[in-house]
Every structure is written in C-alpha cells, then in structure tokens.
Design brief:
Helices cover about 20% and strands about 20% of the residues. By secondary structure, it is α+β, with helices and mostly antiparallel strands. The N and C termini lie far apart (about 65 Å).
Length: about 120
C-alpha cells in the first residue's frame, strides 16, 4: 500500500505550522502523515542540551504571546491547559525556569560586571 492510498493528506515539515496544520486536519477526521527531515519535530523551536544545560530556542518572529495563533490553535485542539505560554519582553531578552518552576526574566548584568 502506498502513502497515497493510506493517507488523505501528507504534511512535510513538523515545525509549528506543519504540526498545527496536521493536528487540525486530523481533528477534522482526515488521515494525516506528518514528515520532517529531522529526528524530532519542532522546526526552529528546539531544545539543545549539552553538559547539563538546556537551551531552548524559539522562532523570533512568532514568539508565543497571548492572543496569537498559538493560543487559537491550542484552544481549537483542546490543549490550552497543557502548554504554558510565556510572553517575552517586547524589547527582547531571555527567560529561564527558576527553582520553583516559574518562568522569569533573566536578570541583566550590571555594566560594571563586564570584564575587558
């Protein structure tokens, strides 16, 4: 049997767009095959772990904030309580998960702390 006869839709790319599209189509009853060139889904939203540290990258232009398409898709899929959306500072910066499990802004380094 071929993919053409087993699936109604084949979505290539398992980033935010492809994954959202595949999930919404499946919710509507279509048989969907989601493919990606990488071993893990996520596209540009990846977590890199090295030497005990984990760095999570997001697609800059689509950072998750309230009222955007992330929220709309999560609600449509009934998953809005499974994901915590954290709004970044509009000026940029970094956030991290503290020891209490809360996402907080990374403190800025005082100007005099930088070594020449």
């Amino acid at each position: 049997m071929t993919a053409r006869s087993e699936y109604d839709v084949v979505v290539v790319g398992a980033g935010f767009g492809g994954s959202s599209c595949a999930a919404l189509l499946a919710k509507r009853g279509l048989k969907v095959l989601l493919l990606d060139k990488n071993a893990k889904a996520g596209g540009k939203a990846i977590a890199i772990s090295k030497k005990g540290f984990t760095y999570t990258a997001w697609v800059v232009i689509t950072a998750p904030i309230q009222g955007n398409m992330f929220e709309v898709v999560l609600k449509e899929l009934g998953m809005e309580n499974r994901v915590e959306l954290v709004a970044p500072d509009p000026k940029g910066g970094a956030i991290y998960k503290n020891s209490k499990g809360k996402y907080v802004p990374m403190p800025e380094m005082p100007p005099d702390s930088v070594m020449d």
